Prior knowledge:
Blueprint: H1 3-34, H2 37-73, H3 80-116, H4 122-151
Amino acid sequence: MEYLVLKYVHVISSTLLFGTGIGSAFYLLATTLSGDVRAIAVVSRMVVRADWLFTATTAVLQPVTGLWLVHRMGMPLSTPWLAASLVCYALAIACWLPVVWLQMRLRDLAAQAAEGNTPLPPRYWRLFKWWVALGVPAFFLFLALFWLMIAKPALGGA
């Protein structure tokens, strides 16, 4: 694959990964805070779908295209900004994986509450707090990752 096409795929997939994450997080957060159980059931179902369609596929595509680009450029993985970006990505994905599981639980609990015309159970709120607690560091890790990719700083005095 030509370098510029590969780079284009890498940039577009990072946009989809980050954009879907931000959009999904915003809508699930805002809808949950609204307290409208039926809306929460609908939005949480769509968030899970979006995560499987866009986030999961681009989460795989990112390291594949990124490592391919590094290989094409002949750059060692020990390059400081690159090594730091790999750590940020690994940590962000480590946050995201449990978030996917949490979103599926939130979806199921919201659907049950909507079907039964009952409020969200306490378990929903406990899981929701974990969802937020994992989402915040993932967001900042992705911001750091974008900065590393763009600035390519010389870290550690190198």
